[in-house]
Every structure is written in structure tokens, then in C-alpha cells.
Write a structure and sequence with these properties.
41% helix; 501 residues; globular; homodimer; 18 helices; 20% strand
Chain lengths: 501, 501
């Protein structure tokens, strides 16, 4: 079918994350002739690119009859410049939706079926409605082991794949965001200082107060393309880059956003998500950090066992030597929560400062140790000690600085302009710290958009506390944001649970 | 929490159907302080109303830092006038999502659980992502009979309910849109001419080329509020009104849109959807028209039996005497497809014109006959004959005119400005007519927005056809739309399947 040509593309900075949205005047030739209505999925084409977008018609003159307002996501997928025109067409039926329906009605999907679905997801042919249905269908009748493998393979094949000349390429992943659990930069520094290759790509925060990429960005540039990553890794053996700049398992990024909106975590989906990223990154040896706690992502030991089993099955099928470390997830790790505050913790550990948070140091060296053992650099049960020695003698710190320089230059994390402490209402012992509420507090203070914002934790579980003693300091970049976080704290007295002693 | 006040509400005619969307400047105090990002669900308040909306931030100056652009749906739900201000707050967690999650993971829902979910759906607290997940969960593990009853009751209770002084109130519903199957106005005219009460509320098209309300609107006003409906029914015994103006089972309208986007029909959901509307409309006696055919909604006799059983179980639980008529759904009914063209068929049958489509006349009198028998007005097996006599002696036509007058005045359906015929490419016998493709053709020609647009069918299954004989005429209101339908026809030769004889 012919389609409508020469429609002026206009950008107004409409932020919809990855969702492609287009606004057209309801009186435009294309809307009238095609009978396009709200929510119609239509195909937009520019010279070399195409994207499927959801339409919303507009009746007012904020938009002309010969133009289209595109969301930023649609704009960048079409690689448009100001003044460019696009053409608009009907969308052919999305064939793989019949496979989705058959999954809903109880039939297992083959690898090829997952491939067709994931291809359509990556090409933007699925709206969030379809993605929500796919995720729900894969939760209502859990994915079989065979299906998890098929889905993982389909997700890997739908994106780019990094390959490395080295026989051993190590990687690390933390399942379930525990606030402040920022071991990655420390681990990379330790294992690369010992000659291992660790091309680490990390994510930015989606719903948390900071992702590793957000934190790392306060210390060095992280937006590296595949070529820059290869150069840094060749020079220094490792990097800590933002994964979004290279298209590793792009389906995962799309699925995760809808998963978060649904607040729906399913094991099969999570396994395919984690493993597809690691396979695409070219890892051969992998350590998985799995914190378990009442307010962590994985809540019980049994859940941890099941998830761990599923991850190991997939890892084995793809020939990745993997170890899962199940650890305590009852409270945040380190002191800082928020990009710059977490960076301070990382620096303190790397610089072996006396005030460095012991739990972060402990955790990072254990995970690094496990990687060293797995890769044959340290004998069993001696990896953590080796990691600690590399930290203590300054090699890790020197290596980290060189990596930062190679990524574009080391910098100082920003410091917040406004802060205020929260105090204990009564004396006693800290019995519980709610990870989710601490994260919320940090986000209300402005993290991760405001790099210096967040929460500085001054109390740990088991610690004895006097009435009026400081529990934490809230950091913000503006008084309004500080107030907002304080208002939340004033109505949520269960962020810290204090037992009278 | 306090929220942000005095934000100027602005309307630009943004049509999103029922979905509430709000655009805010990304640099506005509320976005910055609250960390609101794309897809955040936020609560908007005006003096007496509130609505939950999905946020998209905008960076350009098409929007000021102190204003909010609202979709028309959000605007009307807040009952705003130009110059009004709103306040914006964080949305508290939606409690019933935990019930949705438990349904996903295999637990049946109680009536109270459905009530909580449906209440949140109607209040706009569920985004389409959540609704898609709910529908998928109810399809992946089919609803039990008990659940269907619970869901039906919850849907009825979430809306308005009409009540009538008469002991017998009849109603009719057609399950699955067969193009042109416009029996409703004829049935209402027949049974009310015989003294029965039939306060019929019908829907507009969602994805079809015409709903009964769209068709009826070419003959008389259909946007009647509850008071107007009561008056018309008191005067004439019946009406043919648009259901959207009275809030009968409003959840149904919301769920159906997402269902259509997913192309997901599940029996339990469909039963609750149909029956909740009928119960809310106050029906005591009900006839269900169920066309079965390869390109109809219900495709096999077995499917029809199961669906029929489910509908009767719910009908009985709510004390509604119900009969299901399973009929042939192999091809469209009547000649016209599109609002005005279908109205012409209805008029031809009511006026007993010799060229009136026999199948529409047959179908309408059978359904009317079943209602007459069910309500005790005609003995068993004599209802259809009684209905036919009321049609033949002009009583139905006179009654129909009076109903139109009572609804605001009878009018003439518009006539299309442009038309062109499709011709048979070879001689033979018509073996199949694709309902879905005929509907698509009518929509491409402009139906239902353009009332006169659509398809006039000149061939029926079993008919012998000469090469180059006319198969149908496409009607459109502009040459461009006509061309578009013709282009579709040129690439889809299987709209009519002709067997050589």
C-alpha cells in the first residue's frame, strides 16, 4: 500500500522512554482517509529507517495538518534531523501475536516462536499492551527449562554480540538491587589488576535511586560505543561502561520496563534476561551476587535456590562457568545511596581509607575472589584473600584510575547543596531497615537524576541507638526536593525499626 | 502528601479514547521535585473530581512550566473549563494489583477481589498495561463458573443500573459482530408494537465499520441520558439509544478496548461483559443472537455450545430468562455495511419494500419471535409468525417512526458522494465471503466516521456470477478514501471466493 509522504517531522522533546508515539492532526489527510484513531499502530518511515508508533490524534492547532509530532524515541530510531519528512503507512498485522495467543492458551513455545516474538518486540511492533500480555502469559504458566533456553537464545540473537580474543572473559551480575550494593567497580579493578579480562557493561537506574552506570558516571564517562569499549579493554583489561550504548539483548531493556510497571517478576523471564545480557557480552566465567532479604528482590532462601538452579542450567547450556553467591540482603550495603554518595563509598574502599564501609569491602572482595577462583587465578578458598591483598597494596586503586582515564578521564563526584538528618525518636537497637523505603527516600531527594542527591546511612542493623541520634542524612540539590523527602520520612516511621532494649 | 497546586490545565484536543494522559514540562517544579519520569502514574485533582493519568514529560516550550496539557478523556473526567487549575500528587500504590498478581500465579479470585480490581479499573487506576495483564491472566487460567459470576456482579456494581416499573423487560444481544447484522431496530419496533418494554442501549463501533448506535444515529438522535431514555420508554415502550451516555457496566467499555488491541477473546470475560450490560440495563428476558462461521467471532459449533452454556449459567444466576439462537454466520447480513447503508436495509425491511434483504428480515423476525415466546406474548413456535405479521401490517414501521420522533426526530440517512463497483474476475459460483475483509474494506472507505461510507454487497454465497459482474459497490465521501479501499481490494482477491462451475 502506498502510504502518505512528505509529512514534516517535528520534535518537541516528548519523553516516552522507549515507546514510539506520534501525534497527528485529526483533520489531516492521513487520519481522515485511513480512519486512523487513538491507539492505532502505524508505520513511520524515514529514508533508511522505520518504526512502529502509537497514534494519538489532536484537534487543536498545536499541530499542522501536514506535520507529525514524534516522541524522542521515535525521532532517534528514525535518525531524523530538523526539517526531515517522513511517510506514514498502515501496519500489517503482527504475525507473531498468534504465537503469543497460543502461549496464553497453554501451548509451550519453540525457540523459533520466541525468536519471532522477540524480533517483533525489538522492532517496536509490540505495544506495551502486547508486552504486558506476553509477560503475564509467561508468568501464569511458568516457562519450562526448554522454553527458558529458547527465550534466552532468541534474546541474544536479537541484538549485538561482543567477542573477545581472550579465552577467559569474566563477568559479574547482581540479582536484585540492594541499595548501595555497588561492588562492580571494585571487582573490575581487582580482577583486571591481576590480568583478567572484564569488559563490564552496566545499566542505569530504572526504578532504583542509582544504577552502576549512574554511579560510575560521576567518576568517569560511561557512554562508550563498541569500539571504545574494545579499546579500553585492550589497554586496561576491563571497563565499567553503560550497556545502553551497545545493543546487547535490546529486548531485555524493553521487557524490563513493562515488567517494572506491572511489578511482576517471574523466574523464567528473569533468568533469560540476566543470561542473555551476559552471553551477548561474551562472558565465559560469571559470578552472580544474590542478596536475600525480606525487602530485597529475592525474599526467601527457597526462592534463591530455585532461581540459582535455573540460572546455572542456562549458564551450562551456553558453556558459561558460573557460581552463584547467595548473601544477606537485609539492609543496604555501604553508606551512600544515590550516584555520587555511592561513588564516595567505592573510592573509600579502593583507597583503603579507614572510614571505608566494611560491608562493601567484604562483599566486593568475596565476589572478586569467587571470580579469581573460577578463572583459575586463585586456588579454591583463597580468592577472597588474594582480592583483599590487591586492594590493600593499592594495585586495585591504581588500576581503577587508569580505567577511568582510558574511559575519558577521571572526575570528582559532585557534592550536595542541601542536607538534613533524620533522628531516632527513641533509644533502642536497630532491628530492621526497609530497603525499598530507603530507596524511595533517596529518589524523592532527587536521585538518580540529581547525581549528588540521596541518602547517607549512619545506622546498621544490630546497632544501639540513643534517642535523637542521627540515623541518616538526606542530600538534595534543592530545598524543595529536600522538603519532599523529609515529608515522606515524617509519615513513614518504619524506614528504620528500632526495638527497645 | 501535599501535592502541587495551581497548575493551569490546558486542552489541545488530544484524543486517547478513555486513557488519561498528562504532559508536563520536564523542567517544571513538580517534575523535578517529584522525580516524575515518562510513564509515571500520577493523581490529578480538580475541585470535585480526580483522575489517574500517565505522564509524559516534554522539554520544549510547547508547554509552560506552570501548566499541564491533558488528554480530552482526563479533561472531561475532571469536568474542567478553560482557565481552571488542577493539583498534582503522587499516586498511592494500587492495592488490588496484589490480587491481580495472585490471579497470575494461579489463585482463583473471590467476588470481593474482582470488586476491588474492577473498582480500580473504573477509577482509572489501572493503566492499559495492567488491564492487558488482567485479561491475559483470566485467559491463561480460564475463569471458573464461580469467578465468572463474581466478575459479572463486580462489573454490574461498578456502574449505574436502570430499573423499570414493568415486570417484563426484554433485551437482545448479538454475540460477535457479523457485518450488516442490524436486527435491533426491527426487533424493538416489533416487540414494542405488541406492548412489550424494550429499553435497548447499543454500542458504537470500536473496530467494526458500524455499531448499532452509529447506524441508528443516521435515523434519529441516540445520545440520550437516563432521564430521556425513561421518558421515551414510558411513551413508546422502547428506545434504541447509545449506551455510552449512561454508565452501564463502564468497566466493560474499558476492558473491551484493551481486549481488541490484544485481539484476545476469552469466554469467561466475554460472558461477564455481555451479561453485566444486560443486568445493568434491567433486563428480565433476553435473546442472544450467536452467528457461527469461519470468519465470524464464534467459529465452530462446539465453541458456540460452550459459550452458550456459560451465558445461560450466569443468566440463570441473575434470574434472567434467556434463549440463545445459534445461526449461520458465513456471510454478512443484508446488503449494506456502514452506518447509512445499514440504515437503508433496516428501513427497507420495516417498510416491507420488495427489495428488502430477505436474510435481515428473516433473522429479525426470528429473534423478535423468540422474545415474544419467552415473554409469553406468543405461544411456542408461533413467535416468528406473529413478528412477521406485525412487520407486514405496518405496525412495526409506524412504531419505529414514533420511537424516532420520541428520541428527537426522524431523519434521512446521508448518501455517499463517490462510489465504484468491484467486479468478478471470472465466472463461477460464490463459495465464500470473508466477513473480516468486507469489514476492513468498509472501514477503509471511511465507515463509521463517514456515515455514508461503506460497502453495498450485491452477491451472496451460492449465487452464480458472470465474469465482470458487479460483486459490490464501495461508497465513500471523498475520492481519496475511495482510492484507498480500491487499492485494498486490488491486493486482496479473496474477499469473495468464486468457484468455477
Amino acid at each position: 500500500m502506498a502510504g502518505y509522504h512528505d509529512i514534516k517531522a517535528r520534535r518537541v522533546g516528548l519523553d516516552t522512554h522507549s515507546e514510539a508515539i506520534v501525534l497527528l492532526h485529526s483533520g489531516s489527510a492521513v487520519c481522515r482517509s485511513e480512519g486512523f484513531a487513538a491507539h492505532t499502530r502505524i508505520l513511520l518511515r524515514a529514508s533508511n529507517h522505520k518504526v512502529v508508533a502509537t497514534l494519538f490524534p489532536v484537534t487543536s492547532d498545536i499541530i499542522g495538518c501536514d506535520e507529525a509530532i514524534l516522541s524522542d524515541s521515535a525521532w532517534s530510531r528514525l535518525d531524523l534531523k530538523d526539517g526531515d519528512t517522513i511517510s506514514i503507512e498502515h501496519l500489517d498485522p503482527v504475525e507473531s501475536l498468534s504465537l503469543l495467543r497460543s502461549r496464553i492458551f497453554g501451548h509451550d513455545l519453540s525457540e523459533n516462536s520466541f525468536r519471532a516474538i522477540i524480533r517483533d518486540v525489538v522492532d517496536g511492533r509490540y505495544s506495551s499492551i502486547h508486552i504486558a500480555s506476553f509477560l503475564t502469559a509467561c508468568a501464569a504458566a511458568p516457562l519450562s527449562e526448554k522454553e527458558i533456553l529458547g527465550l534466552t537464545r532468541a534474546m541474544v540473537d536479537a541484538g549485538e554480540r561482543l567477542s573477545w580474543p581472550e579465552a577467559i572473559v569474566v563477568d559479574k551480575h547482581s540479582v536484585g538491587g540492594l541499595p548501595g550494593n555497588r561492588t562492580t567497580p571494585i571487582i573490575v579493578a581487582i580482577v583486571t589488576a591481576l590480568g583478567l579480562t572484564m569488559p563490564k557493561t552496566s545499566s542505569r537506574a530504572i526504578t532504583s535511586p542509582a544504577g552502576t552506570a549512574d554511579m560510575m558516571e560521576t567518576l568517569a564517562p560511561v557512554t562508550l560505543d563498541a569500539e571504545a569499549i574494545r579499546r579500553v579493554v585492550k589497554e586496561e583489561g576491563g571497563c565499567i561502561a553503560w550497556g545502553g550504548a551497545v545493543q546487547l539483548s535490546p529486548a531485555d531493556d524493553i521487557l524490563i520496563r513493562v515488567e517494572r510497571a506491572l511489578d511482576l517478576d517471574t523466574q523464567g523471564q528473569m533468568i533469560a534476561s540476566v543470561m542473555s545480557k551476559k552471553i551477548a557480552a561474551g562472558a565465559t566465567h560469571l559470578v552472580l551476587d544474590m542478596p536475600v532479604g525480606r525487602t530485597a528482590k529475592v525474599r526467601t532462601a527457597q526462592e534463591a535456590q530455585e532461581l540459582s538452579h535455573g540460572l546455572l542450567v542456562v549458564a551450562q547450556a551456553f558453556g558459561i562457568k558460573t557460581r552463584v553467591l547467595i548473601g544477606n540482603g537485609d539492609q543496604p550495603v555501604g553508606r551512600g545511596i544515590g550516584p555520587a554518595l555511592e561513588a564516595q563509598d567505592v573510592l573509600a574502599v579502593l583507597q583503603c581509607r579507614p572510614d571505608a564501609p566494611a560491608d562493601l569491602r567484604e562483599r566486593a572482595t568475596q565476589l572478586a575472589g569467587a571470580l579469581l577462583e573460577l578463572a583459575g587465578v586463585a586456588p579454591m578458598d583463597s580468592g577472597a584473600a588474594l582480592a583483599m591483598s590487591v586492594l590493600n597494596d593499592g594495585r586495585a586503586w591504581r588500576k581503577f584510575q587508569r580505567i577511568c582515564e582510558a574511559q575519558g578521564g577521571m572526575r570528582k563526584p559532585p557534592v550536595s547543596a542541601h542536607k538534613q538528618s533524620l533522628h531516632a525518636q527513641a533509644s533502642g537497637r536497630i532491628a530492621e531497615i526497609d530497603n525499598r523505603k530507603i530507596a524511595r527516600l533517596a529518589k524523592l531527594a532527587g536521585a538518580p537524576e540529581d547525581k549528588a542527591a540521596g541518602v547517607e546511612l549512619l545506622a546498621r542493623i544490630g546497632q544501639d541507638i540513643a534517642a535523637e541520634q542521627e540515623l541518616c542524612i538526606i542530600h538534595a540539590e534543592s530545598p524543595g526536593e529536600l522538603d519532599y523527602a523529609l515529608a515522606y520520612a515524617a509519615t513513614h516511621h518504619d524506614i528504620f525499626r528500632i526495638e527497645s532494649t
